[in-house]
């Protein structure tokens, strides 16, 4: 019914996923009918989605892992996203009654970097030249 163009290399309905595993297993293994099952971490050489964040609960611990398409995301981007998510979770824990729209995902350091460091683009240029001349001069010398 959606009439989505099929591309076998991509999921047809969504590109990102969040998975929360509410783990009922409290031990490292299960037994059934005389068999013993051990849980082993699995490495996925190929990402199933463009971006997936999986959260797995183990007692009082929440283990988070990102799986992503390296053709689309740099490692540094995922590290930055994880930092934003961590900051968001800290703010949720500090303000459990707050609405999501009121919670910050950026730390003060990230805000300062975005607002001041990245925007520090003031450049002096000769006031006797037009913008066209400044641009032309820049092209010639670079």
Task: Walk me through this protein's architecture.
With about 140 residues, this protein is α+β, with helices and mostly antiparallel strands. The chain has three helices and five strands; from the N terminus they run βββββααα. Strands 1-4-5 form a three-stranded mixed β-sheet, with no helix packed on it. Strands 2-3 form a two-stranded antiparallel ribbon. The longest helix is centred in the middle third of the chain and has 20 residues, at about 75-95. The chain is elongated, with a radius of gyration of 24 Å. The model has no long low-confidence stretch (mean pLDDT about 85).
A few lines on this structure:
With 142 residues, this protein is of the alpha+beta class. It has helices spanning 75-94, 108-117, 131-141, and strands at 16-21, 29-32, 35-38, 51-58, 61-68. Strands 1-4-5 form a three-stranded mixed sheet, with no helix packed on it. It has a two-stranded antiparallel sheet with strand order 2-3.
């Amino acid at each position: 019914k959606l009439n989505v163009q099929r591309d076998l290399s991509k999921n047809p309905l969504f590109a990102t996923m969040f998975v929360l595993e509410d783990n009922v297993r409290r031990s490292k293994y299960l037994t059934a009918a005389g068999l013993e099952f051990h849980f082993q971490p699995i490495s996925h050489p190929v990402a199933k989605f463009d971006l997936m964040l999986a959260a797995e609960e183990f007692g009082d611990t929440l283990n988070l892992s990102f799986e992503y398409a390296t053709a689309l995301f740099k490692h540094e981007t995922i590290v930055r996203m994880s930092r934003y998510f961590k900051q968001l979770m800290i703010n949720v824990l500090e303000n459990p009654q707050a609405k999501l729209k009121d919670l910050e995902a950026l730390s003060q350091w990230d805000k300062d970097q975005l607002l001041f460091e990245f925007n520090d683009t003031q450049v002096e240029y000769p006031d006797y030249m037009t913008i066209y001349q400044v641009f032309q001069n820049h092209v010639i010398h670079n």
